[in-house]
Amino acid sequence: MKAQQAPERYSQGWIAGLDMRTALGRDMAARYLTVCDDLGGEASLSYAQRSLIERALWAEYWLASQERELAEGREFDAGRWTQASNALLGLWRTLGLERKAKDVTDLSSYLRRKAEAG
Prior knowledge:
Elements: H1 23-38, H2 47-71, H3 78-95, H4 107-117
Helix pairs in contact: 1-2, 2-3
């Protein structure tokens, strides 16, 4: 059975484990693909990069949930929030903050290679 909400603690594969019929599942899947595209496309990313993206998105989700708690007047730990913010920034910096172009073969190169391959 697919999860309806994010886990309280990070676990590898948490995005794939979400029910994609839910708003959260669709949103996280879209965010994951957006970050992958920003880094040149999922196919060009290493396992480590994909893992860091998943961790960054969980941290981002956790931070947003803590901010909702604060806005609703519930318990809020500023130290944990600050530590998580710094960790998220480190993940984003490791992945890269600049967009990278996808490696896309132009049509003439594709046709030339196809002709050469016979």
